[in-house]
Every structure is written in C-alpha cells, then in structure tokens.
Amino acid sequence: MKEFLLPYGKEKLTAKIEDEHFAGVLLSELHSYKAPKSGAELVQEALEHPIGTPRLCDMAAGKKKVVVISSDHTRPVPSHIMMPLILAEIRKGNPDADITILISTGLHRSTTKEELAAKFGPEIMANEKIVVHDCDDKDNLVYLGKLPSGGNLIINRLAAEADLLVAEGFIEPHFFAGFSGGRKSVLPGVASRETVMYNHNSGFIADPHARTGVIEGNPVHNDMLYAARAARLDFIVNVVIDAAHDPIFAVAGDCDLAHRVGREFLASKCQVDAIPADIVISTNGGYPLDQNIYQSVKGMTAAEATVKEGGVIIMLSKAADGHGGKYFHETFRDEKDLNRMMKTFLDRKPEETIIDQWQSQIFARLLLKATVVFVSSCDDQLVEDLHMVPAHSMEEAMEKAKAIVKKDDYKVTVIPDGVSVIVRE
C-alpha cells in the first residue's frame, strides 16, 4: 500500500493506493531541493548581482516616483522577506524616494487590509503607501497604445507614470502563459479589464503553444512581454519557492533576461514525464492557491496531461471561497453541452471575450477528456453545476472514481502538487 499526504487548504488528506493499482507519482524536485542559503540571503544576493540591468540602488538615484508592483492575496509570494530588502535597496540609492506599493490584482477582487497585513507584516503596513489596483477604475487607467495582437494596452496610472517601475513576484508553471512572474506583473497584474480579456481570448487559449512551461511561440506571453516593455518595467525581483513557500532561488534585473534564468532553473527541477493512468489524483498545492474552484483548474491541467482519455481526475481543493468566479460558475450551470460551449468560445472574437472565458475554455477542454471528482468543502450542488462529481473525503473520491472507470485493473497516478509540475506528454 502506498500512502500520500496531500495538501488540502491548510490541512493534509491521506491517499492510499494499493500497490497493484499504483502507476507512479509526478513530483517536482522543488519539494526536495535544499537551497544553499536562506531566502533572505538569496534575495539579497540577487539584488546585488542583477541580470541585464544596473543595481536597483543605482537605478533609483534621482528618481522621484517609484512604484513597486506586488502580487495579491491569491499568490504565495513571500513578500515579508522580499519587500523589506527591495525597499532598502531603493532607499540606499535614494533615501527620499516617494515609494508606492501597487498590488497587482489583475481581474481578482480587491485584497483586504487583513490579507495585506498577513502578506507584508506590521512594519510595512504602518510605514508604506499601499494602493490596490482596480482594473475597472477608468480614472486611474492610462492608454499606452496597441498590443502586437491588436488589443488596447491600458494600465494603472501609477505604474504608467512612475519614474522607476519595479515588480516583485514568483515564478511557477502557468497553464497558459507558460510561467508566472516577470512580465505578468504588468499584464494582467495592473492592466485594465479590457486589456486582460483581449489577451486571454479564445484563439490564444486554444493555441498549442499556450501551455504549461511553453514560452516559444506562446501568443499570450508575447503580448505580456510587450506590455511590460511598453510600461517600462525597469526591474524585477522574482523567486522560486518550495512547498513551504520559502525562496529557494532568486533572480533580479531585466524583466525578460532575469525571468529567463529563473524559469530555466524552475524547469530543470519540475519537468516530469507523464505516467498515463485511468485515475489521476492532483491538488492545487493547498492554501492559498486552493481557495476556490476557479483557481483549482490550474492543478487539474497537470492531471489532464497524464490521465487517459475517458479517465477520472480526482482533484483535492478545499475551495472555502466557493466557485471563485460568478461568470465561470454560470457558464457551466447554464450550458450542459460542453461541445456546444467550446464552439461558442472559439467563435467569439477577441474583443468580445467575456469574463472568465479563458478559465471556462480550459476547464471545458479537460472535462471533455476526463470526469473530475472534486474533493472540497463546497456544497454538492455547486460542484454539480460545474459538471463535476462531488466528494468530501479521499475515500469517497476513490470509490466514485473506481465506479466511473469500471475496470478491475485500473491504474492511479498521484500528483501531490499540480501547480508545481510541468508534465511532458
């Protein structure tokens, strides 16, 4: 019997797989990698040896308005480690800099004061200016021209008018942008709703290059990098984190060149070969990434890449906040025919992209391949609205999965953290 402790919210659930049914485990080496230094030391070292730019302290000299973009509550960025070092580096070169921390919510809800306090700690909360981006606040958005794809590039005024624009973030596999971090701080981070929705259009999402770990030829990435350059994103500080959300690698400097070094390190640790199976168990890595069903689609895409056609994905996600997207929920609740839903998405022009369409499109794609048994704290009706089979324990999920595959010789693959692996099919 194989046993796995799998992240579920802030807890763990145990999966037990009989030896004869066990196909294998897809595990990122990030979980076992031992960093040579502490997270703070790694970040400081990156700041002192930037890639493709001068040091941040030198860049800050003489600059009046400095904006530091920071991720929001949906990302486990260790800002309590990173931000004090970034601020100190800026003030080393310019003690009088007028610094604003801009929270890159993208299309997410506004980050609360409690979430900001948990993210930054009391000292930064008490002493720094923090502004939360609002993608619909037209008075505080600025037009910067056209994206290569033809969409309008509209971003937060604070970012656009900064004398020095800096971003902190983390690099992880991303299910259609290739990787998170770097250029994503601008688009979608501090962009307008119109800009984000155009970038997430159905044609881009359907492109075979818009996949986890793919940058070359990725149309989503190409627009994002253009946006970062147009916004004059001068300097980034990005980390790769382990399962405890501690930095194990850090890069700083140019938003593309430094990001490349970071994603090359990440890919070297988390690329795994698919192990095809009838049942695949995945997670979203626990809290904070499994707060809702919407975000949990990311962990499901890792399972999608290794589950057999017509198989079952068991997805563990506490999803205490429910569906996470009103339109995402309504799309699946109101349309029972997934093929018809997909055709509707693909027929829609980029400028007609609707809210949450990209997530719905990817979710529909994987539901057309496999049944999803969803282990969560959600109401059963909500899970069924989203075309999934509800379960509230690992044991219940396994029984339901076995009943669906209807095979005595079924095989099971386990992915302890679906958002930390790049599965090669």
Overview features:
20 strands; 425 residues; globular; Rossmann fold; 6-stranded mixed sheet; 6-stranded parallel sheet; 2 domains; 16 helices; 2-enoyl-CoA Hydratase, Chain A, domain 1; alpha/beta
CATH architecture of the largest domain: 3-Layer(aba) Sandwich
Domains, number:
2
Q: What Rg, in angstroms, do the CA atoms define?
A: 21 Å
Strand count? 20
CATH class (first level) name of the largest domain: Alpha Beta
CATH topology of the largest domain: Rossmann fold
Question: What share of the residues lie within helices?
Answer: 25-40%
Biggest sheet overview: 6 strands, parallel
Sheet/helix structural class: alpha/beta
What is the H level of CATH, i.e. the homologous superfamily of the largest domain?
LarA, N-terminal domain
**Spatial strand order of the main sheet:** 3-19-15-16-17-18
Instruction: List segments where confidence is low: pLDDT < 50 over at least 5 consecutive residues.
Output: none
Span of the ends, CA to CA: 27 Å
Q: Kindly report the average pLDDT value.
A: 96
Shape, please?
Answer: globular
With helices defined by DSSP (H or I, 4 residues minimum), what is the helix count? 16
Share in β-strands: 25-35%
